[in-house]
Each structure stands twice: as C-alpha cells, then as structure tokens.
Amino acid sequence: MPTSHADVVTEHASRYLQQLCKHWAHKFPVEFDPNHGTIDLSLGRTVLD
C-alpha cells in the first residue's frame, strides 16, 4: 500500500484539523478530537496529528 507523510506547521492546527474532519464526515467514517483525527477514505486511512 502506498504511503505519504507531510508536516505542516500552523498557528491554528487544531482548528484546521477539526474543520477538515467535519468536512469529510459527510462522506466517510471519521473520528477526531482537538489533537488527532482519522478519516477512513475509500483509498485508505488518513491520520492527522
């Protein structure tokens, strides 16, 4: 299975993580809290920390 890794530094990481998870929750199973999120996309799992 292909994998990818990226680090992005931002002052509002928690806010962006939660917005992204809420957006994808309309189509895919999502679990998140202010510091961690997982999105089970059709191509595989996305982990946000």
Beta content comes to: 25-35%
- Structural domain tally: 1
Please state the average pLDDT score.
95
Radius of gyration, in Å, reads 11 Å
CATH 2nd-level architecture: 2-Layer Sandwich
The helix content, as a percent range, equals 10-25%
Q: Helix tally?
A: 1
Shape estimate:
flat
Q: Tell me how many strands there are.
A: 3
What is the CATH C-level name?
A: Alpha Beta
Terminus-to-terminus distance: 21 Å
Fourth-tier CATH superfamily name: Alpha-D-phosphohexomutase, C-terminal domain
Strand order of the largest sheet: 1-2-3
CATH T-level fold name: TATA-Binding Protein
Could you state the order of secondary-structure elements as H and E? Answer: HEEE
List keywords for this structure.
49 residues, alpha+beta, TATA-Binding Protein, 3 strands, flat
Structural write-up:
The protein is α+β, with helices and mostly antiparallel strands and about 50 residues long. It has one domain (about 15-49): Alpha-D-phosphohexomutase, C-terminal domain (TATA-Binding Protein). The chain is about 25% helix and about 30% strand. The chain is built from 1 helix and 3 strands. It has one helix at about 15-25; strands spanning about 30-35, 35-40, 45-49. Strands 1-2-3 form a 3-stranded antiparallel sheet, with helices on one face. It is flat and about 30 Å long. It starts with 12 loop residues before the first helix and ends with a strand. The model has no long low-confidence stretch (mean pLDDT about 95).
